[in-house]
Amino acid sequence: MSRTDAILARLSRLHPKLIDLSLDRMLPLLEKLGNPQDRLPPTIHVAGTNAKGSTIAYLRAFLEASGKSVHVYNSPHLVRFNERIRLAGKLVGTRRLNAALEEVEALNGGAPITFFEVTTVTAFKLFAETKADFLLLETGMGGTYDTTNVVKHPIGTVITPIDLDHQGFLGNTVAEIAVSKAGILKRGAKSVMGLQRDEARAVLDRAARKLGIAPLWQGEDFHGTSRDGRLEYQDEQGLLDLPPPALPGPHQFENAALAIAAARHFDLPVDEKAFAEGLRCVTWPARMQPIRTGKLRDLLPPGHELWLDGGHNPHGAAALARTISAMPKKPLVMIMGMMNTRPPEDFLAPFRDLHPAKIFTLTIPGEQNAHGAEEIAARARAQGFAAKATRSITTALKAAAKVPDARVLICGSLYLAGDVLAKNGTRPD
């Protein structure tokens, strides 16, 4: 076990027996650190159910193409915890991370605190200590009581599409979840909204009006579509003809347009040339990521494709299925693992029309709250899919190799995606 892992294990043991959605545990700890959340670079706060990470990846690419230095806070990580904290363009170094974690641990003095709370406090400390032009801040879960929501004066907020996820904490309907996501809106901060279902739109609109905010709405105030293979973006400032996003999938044109709208609405120093460069070079691991080399890829014969995606809820599954359906036809083999907080049936529903040749299921290694491989396979078969449980990703890939000329898709969980990248020898950064 590395020193970082040992520190994080100690911090995990401080988790309170009951989770109450509040900021009461971390505010005293931030006070002991001199309130670093009040000493951050200009901050863009991003919430939503899906596309948070992609939107931040585009914004980072646009700003860095403009010569700006950018802090980024994302979660969860895939292989190393360091991935969550990017300081002025580079992942935090391990020595500096360990020192900051231990300082925060000592100040906390063993008091009950969640893992995400204590690590977010650590991130704020590091962001405040390091000079940068901007901070791109992703919520962990929800909005109102999310640990990132201690930033009082962001320059702008973005709410990506809202759908069902984390119902046990945020609510059982899209409208209830939208109430939580709307909590990041701040009086005096501009806001941009992604494509929303009607019930989410109504909630967000009411919340914005109460704060005197007039958001930009995707599909109404700005549009981004694929035209002749390029991204055509339009808002009241005019039309942009841009290269397609480097991230694959039809939904990435929508995600890129949301980020462009945010950059223009928040008056970020990004011109058309930087938009084009950012779209060409943007990266975001485990989001329809092609795996072309590595130990796991070597288990498949030439002619097979291997793709990795960490989408794990119905909205993400629908976007993934759209991406696959837009590709040249090949037999589809799915390798799937999921956490037990999400029903496999909901994730699989968008793939019904794609008629996968086979689904191989596995239990996500090292995750106590993962669905068992046999259970996922049984529930998939009950939905009419040809599914079989396997012992490991290696076993699943060897079985997939027997399907001629297959497109192999590993999906269902970011935790599974991280395990795959580590075993394949692929660095997420």
Automatic annotation (TrEMBL):
Alphabetical list of InterPro entries matching this protein: Folylpolyglutamate_synth, Folylpolyglutamate_synth_CS, Mur-like_cat_sf, Mur_ligase_C, Mur_ligase_C_dom_sf, Mur_ligase_cen
Enzyme type, top EC level: ligase
Domain of life per record: Bacteria
Keywords: ATP-binding, Folate biosynthesis, Ligase, Magnesium, Metal-binding, Nucleotide-binding
Domain Mur ligase C-terminal: 307-413
EC number: 6.3.2.12, 6.3.2.17
Signal peptide coordinates: none
GO CC field: cytoplasm
Any Pfam family: Mur_ligase_C
Necessary cofactors: Mg(2+)
UniProt catalytic activity: (6R)-5,10-methylenetetrahydrofolyl-(gamma-L-Glu)(n) + L-glutamate + ATP = (6R)-5,10-methylenetetrahydrofolyl-(gamma-L-Glu)(n+1) + ADP + phosphate + H(+); 10-formyltetrahydrofolyl-(gamma-L-Glu)(n) + L-glutamate + ATP = 10-formyltetrahydrofolyl-(gamma-L-Glu)(n+1) + ADP + phosphate + H(+); (6S)-5,6,7,8-tetrahydrofolyl-(gamma-L-Glu)(n) + L-glutamate + ATP = (6S)-5,6,7,8-tetrahydrofolyl-(gamma-L-Glu)(n+1) + ADP + phosphate + H(+); 7,8-dihydropteroate + L-glutamate + ATP = 7,8-dihydrofolate + ADP + phosphate + H(+)
A GO MF term: tetrahydrofolylpolyglutamate synthase activity
Keyword Nucleotide-binding: yes
Pathway the protein takes part in: Cofactor biosynthesis; tetrahydrofolate biosynthesis; 7,8-dihydrofolate from 2-amino-4-hydroxy-6-hydroxymethyl-7,8-dihydropteridine diphosphate and 4-aminobenzoate: step 2/2; Cofactor biosynthesis; tetrahydrofolylpolyglutamate biosynthesis
Any one GO BP annotation for this protein: folic acid biosynthetic process
Residue ranges annotated for the Mur ligase central domain, each copy included: 46-263
Keyword Repressor: no
NCBIfam families, sorted: folC
Its biological purpose: Functions in two distinct reactions of the de novo folate biosynthetic pathway. Catalyzes the addition of a glutamate residue to dihydropteroate (7,8-dihydropteroate or H2Pte) to form dihydrofolate (7,8-dihydrofolate monoglutamate or H2Pte-Glu). Also catalyzes successive additions of L-glutamate to tetrahydrofolate or 10-formyltetrahydrofolate or 5,10-methylenetetrahydrofolate, leading to folylpolyglutamate derivatives.
PANTHER family, per the entry: DIHYDROFOLATE SYNTHETASE-RELATED, FOLYLPOLYGLUTAMATE SYNTHASE-RELATED
Family as reported in the entry's similarity comment: Belongs to the folylpolyglutamate synthase family.
Name of the protein in its database record: Dihydrofolate synthase/folylpolyglutamate synthase
